[in-house]
Write a structure and sequence with these properties.
5 strands; two-stranded antiparallel ribbon
């Protein structure tokens, strides 16, 4: 799995070059199952028969989503050769 870029609002630098991404995981019991999801990542959700299994499945789901996102970013090069592209963190404060 590729190491995520620290150019993310949820990224916390670790060991100089690696990053640790911080997200809010939620767990909810529903009958015999546990559901788990992440508030900041729509689509990052899973389930398990134990809370531990649901949490591990959620870590795997997040990793796969970030891997796909990194591949998509690599494929989305500017259409104009030599175009200047700036990356910035955009912070939005809810009203």
């Amino acid at each position: 799995m590729a190491v995520a870029s620290c150019n993310r609002p949820t990224a916390v630098p670790q060991n100089g070059t690696d990053c640790r991404l911080i997200h809010t995981g939620l767990d909810q019991r529903s009958g015999d199952w546990w559901a788990a999801w992440v508030e900041e990542l729509p689509g990052a959700n899973t389930q398990g028969t134990t809370i531990e299994e649901a949490r591990e499945n959620l870590r795997e789901a997040i990793a796969l989503m970030l891997e796909d996102e990194a591949e998509d970013e690599a494929d989305s090069a500017p259409a104009v050769v030599g175009a200047e592209v700036l990356r910035e963190v955009v912070t939005v404060t809810p009203a």
